[in-house]
């Protein structure tokens, strides 16, 4: 056991998990807070600057249009300037734009700033996945990705308790509560982004916190896997893989998952407000409950997936649970609907990290990075359709019931589509180079 603990590769990977992964989780928490805080400011934006349900939904969704448009250029610039500089740029720029949301005067400025926020954040998730590919052997990237994705649920869980007090600062120093919300969370991202610059390194060779043997072992393991990919690249075309029907399946399934996540992200506070006697603080606290439940569910489904090595059945079960619970929430009383949405969140949030383990095991290594970028870009368009569609539905009917019906149908359809995914063998480093990582104490 001692030899395993003292193995240079094991020590290096352990250091990456302790130094880098927690930082990325914090960065993702800031990311989610800044893209979703308008859900808590919605009522105040409508009252103060006249942004109705349809305009709110369109503005919330425009973020994802910009994100999809600018994601590929952002990834290209990241490869040119390196993850250290580019991830810092992404965080600082989205913090500036998010803070600028305090100057919204009406629908037009709301649309412009939401679009700019999407452009600023574009490429963040693929950049993290790319970073893992340069710093971790493939045998450890799945757990790192799962821990990273869990940060979005942590953000959703704390966003309510954080947003309520900030909104309650109404009138402090002459600013309304919603302006404090945007300002404080935007500045937080800027501070974390600048801190990240002091902690990140673009290349393993630049990491002073790794010893020379650790650098050599980590570099050798990753280069071995890169070499294995290159030996198969002559007979496999990246573009042919991108054109395969399986990639379309990935896009559709991830689109459905994102529909559920962002419909609840942007409209859950409005659903909670149907409960009699709720205010800003109670809405914030109650809105955090589904995301707290989701964090617990993600932990147990992740462990089950690691132990069984079979993520497809768990993914199907998660989507079915999400679909059934969402349907029942549409017809339940407000309080019982919140309970059902807690169950639904356990389903669709668990589905996200479970989903990303499947491309890693079914896509040829030569095209994996490109497939991740394409699926993430197109799937994230669910973040446009969900809030905009819910806004139109609420504008027309005064409620979001039919939107919940649509989410339920999308989850159940995605569960069926998972059945058609086939799994292929992935090239990994030989067993001798893949020692287990000890859990950080």
TrEMBL record:
Subcellular location: Cell membrane
Superkingdom: Bacteria
Species annotation: Amycolatopsis melonis
Membrane-related topology note: Multi-pass membrane protein
Major facilitator superfamily (MFS) profile domain location: 20-426
Chain segments annotated as transmembrane: 53-73, 85-104, 110-132, 144-168, 180-198, 247-269, 281-302, 314-346, 366-390, 402-421
CDD domains for this protein: MFS_ExuT_GudP_like
Designated name of the protein: MFS transporter
The entry's keywords: Membrane, Transmembrane, Transmembrane helix, Transport
Coiled coil stretches, renumbered: none
